[in-house]
Amino acid sequence: MALNRRQFGATAIGSAAALWAAPSIAQGKKTSLKVGGQFADSHPSSKAMEEACAEIRKQSDGRIDIQFFPSAQLGSDAAMLTQVRSGALDMMTASGISMQVVAPIAGISGMAFAFSDYAHVWQAMDGDLGASIRDGLDKVGIYAFPRILDSGYRNITTSNHPINSVEDLKGMKMRVPPSPVWVSLFTALGSSPTSITINELYSALQTKIVDGQENPLTIIESGKYFEVQKYCSITEHMWDGLWIIANGKRIKSLPAEDLSLITKAFESATMKQRTETERLNIDLEGSLKTKGLVFNRPDKAPFREALTKAGFYTEWKQKYGDDAWAVLEKYSGKLA
Question: Residues 98, 78: contact at Cβ < 8 Å?
């Protein structure tokens, strides 16, 4: 049936209105997102994620229902990473070093004794090194948000004797996260590394499956490892951070304004968390002493020299490649 001019005009206006209304309807749809975390709810990274998720729910009037699950409720690091890659889990916080099993370059920021202070860490992670890592993750379907949470410099705790020299590590049963760079590092230092997930670590220390472990002070405190360890050696052998990552397809399917809102909330919480974690890693020494940990500060130079002599840096330079290594050394100085 032919349309008269008035009918045609009304139809055209109605169609145009429908086209304009469509995005608004789509934007009004409720989005549900699950975020997994490995540490206790008292850990600074968990607090930051809870704060960010609450802010996202508030800013979106509840339309973006994003929920954070700490304490490895959704599985170990490896299990959650598999879920994120498959799309079974939307997001998680993940150490770059633990992700090197799927994207080798992700672990480069955890190179032993690479960053002398936080100034160099943030220059690297907010600069070209962080961008290189995010690009590497993107290639395997993982989206990493621009700012990385601070996990802190890692230190060694033991149940039998303090670590004052490389010799003190010889033959020691050391727990390390399930990641090649940690195994390689402590093997090069002469210890016997055993890969154990974070949610099994306390019992492994308690039952003497391992003699020691290494983590930032915030994790030593929140994990209550001071209950089953006696000595804490401030080796600061490695800096570690937590990327907020997401399934690439899932996150890129969100409306641009939703991704922008989520990104801003994560960035704000991350920047506050960095400041808080740096402060805590200084203040916690005093409180952990009152809980029975005995502290010492070994000279770091012999440890780095031992790694160089063992070919540790040369090995990892070959694995990461000259280009990636050059980006690292832009911030760390010459390593190999």
Answer: yes
Q: Regarding beta strands 91-95 and 173-176, do their DSSP bridges make them parallel or antiparallel, or are they unpaired?
A: unpaired
Largest CA distance in the chain: 94
Asked if 312 and 185 touch (Cβ cutoff 8 Å), the reply is yes
- 159: Cα within 13 Å, side-chain hemisphere: 19
Query: Burial, 17: exposed, middle or buried (Cβ in 10 Å; 0-12, 13-18, 19+)?
Result: exposed
Question: Which class is 30-332 in CATH?
Answer: alpha beta
Q: Is the pLDDT of residue 107 over 50?
A: yes
Q: How far is CA 160 from CA 175, 198, 263, 284, in A?
A: 14, 21, 45, 22
Closest CA to 199 of 50, 82, 39, 48: 39
Q: What is the mean pLDDT of residues 106-112?
A: 95
| pLDDT above 50 for 176 | yes
